């Protein structure tokens, strides 16, 4: 894990047991949420309630030259809509789930152009990395 | 498929090249029967009655049109009938399936053997989804082939052809 900060949606954060306050190497974790819980965030986590732009700005400042890892479909969608997402790494598993949350949903009706940067073939999984082209 | 969804078929511009896209296109054209949904069939102007080489085309539709079908086309209203007629017509050859609605109906009926995805690097944001209206149970797949197109210089034009086998959930029992 070489990312210097983590952005995560509240739902994923709770599903993961809040990572007991440490995602990896103690890097700061920015939890995007509408309403922060009463109790303080554990360990390296902090709650961000003033929107995705603020969340990304804080994470970039914390990560410095390093990349930021982003967790959670809704948060990724918010970043995409705000034009803040630089890359998408898809882990393609050979199964049709038939129900559940979709990764690509609530997107703007305009196209978002991608560039395939890398295709890695793992056992039972295909890792596809795309760069998001900025509009204009 | 979204607005300007035909963008998803730009890889066909390379259908006559020796590379992966040409290989996939040749495979399509060596199928011995076609199943198509009604919507795709009409969008394609009914292929003027001939999809390729005069092979039989079975159009899955709820409402059979009044006018007789052109050329090698025939209309079928039942998905199971459609699959068995197409398999019989193709003999030892493969059957090609066109259209999201038809593919979903065949998947639901347990009649789809393989999926060939042409993954194009764009998020359309709206339109019909390929994987929709599926049963709530998982459908297990096996990735059996992956063709990339690294020689295409324009990165946004790079397509990834992924072929999956659909695993059977158990013995098919006809009732």
Strand line-up in the sheet with most strands of chain A: 3-2-1-4
Shape of chain A: globular
Helix content of chain B: 10-25%
Widest β-sheet, arrangement of strands of chain B: 3-2-1-4
Reading the helices and strands of chain B in chain order gives: HEHEEHEHEEEE
How many alpha or pi helices of chain A? 3
Largest sheet of chain A: 4 strands, parallel
Rounded radius of gyration of chain B (Å): 17 Å
The helix fraction of chain A, in percent, is 10-25%
| Number of E-type strands of chain A | 8
Give your account of this protein's structure.
The complex is a heterodimer of chains A (136) and B (175). By secondary structure, chain A is an alpha/beta fold. The relative contact order of chain A is 0.18. The model of chain A has no long low-confidence stretch (mean pLDDT 94). With 175 residues, chain B is an alpha/beta fold. The longest helix of chain B is centred in the middle third of the chain and has 12 residues. Chain B has a four-stranded parallel β-sheet. Classes of the chains: A alpha/beta (136), B alpha/beta (175). Strand 7 of chain A pairs antiparallel with strand 6 of chain B.
Distinctive features:
heterodimer, A: 136 residues, alpha/beta, four-stranded parallel β-sheet, 3 helices, 8 strands, globular, B: 175 residues, three-stranded antiparallel β-sheet
Outline:
Chain A contains 3 helices and 8 strands; from the N terminus they run βαββαβαββββ. Chain A is an alpha/beta fold and 136 residues long. Chain B has 175 residues and is of the alpha/beta class.
Describe the SSE topology.
The complex is a heterodimer of chains A (136) and B (175).
Chain A: E1 5-9, H1 10-15, E2 29-32, E3 45-48, H2 52-63, E4 68-71, H3 73-81, E5 87-92, E6 95-96, E7 112-122, E8 125-132
Parallel strand pairs in A: 1-2, 1-4, 2-3
Antiparallel strand pairs in A: 5-8, 7-8
Chain B: H1 20-29, E1 33-37, H2 38-43, E2 57-60, E3 73-76, H3 79-90, E4 95-98, H4 100-108, E5 114-119, E6 122-123, E7 139-147, E8 160-166
Parallel strand pairs in B: 1-2, 1-4, 2-3
Antiparallel strand pairs in B: 5-8, 7-8
